[in-house]
């Protein structure tokens, strides 16, 4: 199965840095508030230590009340700062995730159509759904909780060393265990998570292809084969999902043991130092409370570190979606003339579809392409529109190769056999061609193709469902709005659209031969080659293959054909 590329770690790091740099002010504000919240949160353990020492040395009642009041004030201040920090964290997460989604959408839309055609439908679908979903919680919740965990660990250990360095040394006793186990995990996790996402994409592709081609599957009796394929993909996805879980259940308990061990050692080592007179009971109590307070943030930090390994694989898939380099470098076309020279193409290297097509279409000329099924007509249309890239030869508009145009859709408009209507109003559907088009232009475009639809009509499964003829009219109205100088039409047209094609260079794939009569020239394809071309009347007079096709289609012999 063809897949989209993956971004390397350097690219992922650069893209994430760029994303965060864009919001550096929000991020700085978030870090400051979290820092204050963690710092204030260190006060209660310190005050409790003071209280413990005070009880052993004979605190006055008023002194106890003051310390208790300070503890209460510190707890309230920490709660307030934590609330503000959490609010800032979620706001930042939503903004960053929204930017990420918009950036990914732009990347997908900027992909060459040939790339989208080549890869499986589940490849783009899984990256825009499953992969983004796996990142969502990281950006929204994991980022702030990671910040809290890191700040808590650093400030707490630092404060412990200020209280009593000898006792505080026990806080890091579990660090080697955590470091070694994490190193083991990070060496294996990225590949495991990447394999899991790839397996899910393959499953999505199998399901999407089966659903999209349900009629073909049923007609050809392929149901059992498709069910078997989906079952195999399900089994593969299930097995791939188990490997990351196995890694996590082996790594996470070791990390937890590392920082829980610190609490036990602090108490034991601190008690020994108290006996030796090298530490006070209050100091040991304070540091023990510090370590205990770190457990929850460190639990969160360890959890999100594991999730980041999955997210890094998703980031690689998302940032791997990028337009092909080197496109958009050519000059603007000087005119709308179309030149096809030595054009060769095959969907597989060993099965060529087109064999050296040569064709010149003058600016404003309308050419009808006819031929039997499988002759390569639709393939030629997609090559002219830049959807596919030729194996050899070139397609140029005004002397500029279509593949070099910065915005091919501005110069070549393609209307395929399938008419796509999107959920939204009629106006929304039309503005896909020209987002800034005023209502007057939208109404004029509908009128040009004979459509009678109100601009505010809602379209979709739960609203008005346009007829196939209306879907075709909407597609043609987009062509009118786009006003591209070259138009490629695949399949039959609606009535009354000859006016909208006037003055444009048109390549029209014809299935109803009466449409070819209105063309300036007819090109006959057979087995991927041009076998005849010329005006309709001249081809009939020549008595060749086109004349035979016309006779078969019209049901009457061609009069005056060459013998």
TrEMBL record:
Q: Which UniProt keywords apply?
A: ATP-binding, Membrane, Nucleotide-binding, Transmembrane, Transmembrane helix
Residue ranges of every copy of the ABC transmembrane type-1 domain listed in the record: 35-310
State the annotated membrane topology for this chain: Multi-pass membrane protein
Residue span(s) of domain ABC transporter: 338-552
Q: ATP-binding: present as a keyword of the record?
A: yes
- Extract one GO molecular function annotation from the record: ATP binding
Q: Which SUPFAM superfamilies match?
A: ABC transporter transmembrane region, P-loop containing nucleoside triphosphate hydrolases
Subcellular localization, per the record? Cell membrane
What stretches pass through the bilayer? 31-52, 64-85, 147-180, 251-275
InterPro entries, per database record: AAA+_ATPase (IPR003593), ABC1_TM_dom (IPR011527), ABC1_TM_sf (IPR036640), ABC_transporter-like_ATP-bd (IPR003439), P-loop_NTPase (IPR027417), Type_1_exporter (IPR039421)
User: Is Cell inner membrane one of the keywords?
Assistant: no
Spell out the protein name for this chain: ABC transporter ATP-binding protein
């Amino acid at each position: 199965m063809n897949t989209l590329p993956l971004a390397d770690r350097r690219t992922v790091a650069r893209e994430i840095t760029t994303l965060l740099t864009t919001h550096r002010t929000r991020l700085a504000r978030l870090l400051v508030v979290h820092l204050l919240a963690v710092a204030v949160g260190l006060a209660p353990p310190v005050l409790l230590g003071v209280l413990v020492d005070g009880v052993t040395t004979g605190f006055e009642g008023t002194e106890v009340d003051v310390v208790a009041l300070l503890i209460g004030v510190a707890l309230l201040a920490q709660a307030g700062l934590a609330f503000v920090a959490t609010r800032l964290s979620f706001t930042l997460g939503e903004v960053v995730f929204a930017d990420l989604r918009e950036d990914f959408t732009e990347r997908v839309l900027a992909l060459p159509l040939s790339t989208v055609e080549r890869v499986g439908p589940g490849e783009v679908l899984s990256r825009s759904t499953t992969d983004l979903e796996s990142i969502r919680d990281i950006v929204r919740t994991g980022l702030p909780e990671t910040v809290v965990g890191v700040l808590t660990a650093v400030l707490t250990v630092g404060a412990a060393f200020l209280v009593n360095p000898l006792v505080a040394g026990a806080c890091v006793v579990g660090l080697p265990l955590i470091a070694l186990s994490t190193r083991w995990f990070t060496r294996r996790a990225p590949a495991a998570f990447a394999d899991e996402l790839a397996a899910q994409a393959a499953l999505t592709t199998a399901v999407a292809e089966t659903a999209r081609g349900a009629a073909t599957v049923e007609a050809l009796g392929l149901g059992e084969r498709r069910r078997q394929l989906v079952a195999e993909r399900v089994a593969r996805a299930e097995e791939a999902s188990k490997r990351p879980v196995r890694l996590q259940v082996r790594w996470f308990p070791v990390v937890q043991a590392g920082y829980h061990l610190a609490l036990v050692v602090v108490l034991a080592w601190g008690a020994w130092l108290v006996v030796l007179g090298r530490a006070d009971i209050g100091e040991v109590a304070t540091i023990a409370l510090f370590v205990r307070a770190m457990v929850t943030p460190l639990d969160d930090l360890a959890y999100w570190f594991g999730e980041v390994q999955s997210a890094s694989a998703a980031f690689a898939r998302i940032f791997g979606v990028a337009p092909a380099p080197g496109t958009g470098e050519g000059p603007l076309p000087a005119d709308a003339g179309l030149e096809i020279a030595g054009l060769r193409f095959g969907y597989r290297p060993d099965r060529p579809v087109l064999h050296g097509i040569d064709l010149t279409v003058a600016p404003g000329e309308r050419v009808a392409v006819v031929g039997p099924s499988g002759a390569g007509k639709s393939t030629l249309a997609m090559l002219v529109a830049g959807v596919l890239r030729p194996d050899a030869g070139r397609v140029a508009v005004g002397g500029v190769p279509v593949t070099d145009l910065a915005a091919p859709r501005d110069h070549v408009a393609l209307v395929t056999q399938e008419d796509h209507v999107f959920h939204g109003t009629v106006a929304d559907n039309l503005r896909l061609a020209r987002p800034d088009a005023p209502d007057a232009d939208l109404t004029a475009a509908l009128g040009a193709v004979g459509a009678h639809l109100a601009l505010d009509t809602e379209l979709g499964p739960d609203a008005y469902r346009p007829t196939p003829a209306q879907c075709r009219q909407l597609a043609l109205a987009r062509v009118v709005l786009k006003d591209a100088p070259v138009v490629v039409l695949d399949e039959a047209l609606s009535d009354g659209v000859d006016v909208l094609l006037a003055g444009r260079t048109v390549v029209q794939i014809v299935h109803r031969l009466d449409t070819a009569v209105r063309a300036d020239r007819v090109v006959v394809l057979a087995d991927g080659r041009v076998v005849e071309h010329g005006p309709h009347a001249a081809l009939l007079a020549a008595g060749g293959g086109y004349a035979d096709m016309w006779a078969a289609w019209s049901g009457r012999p061609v009069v005056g054909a060459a013998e």
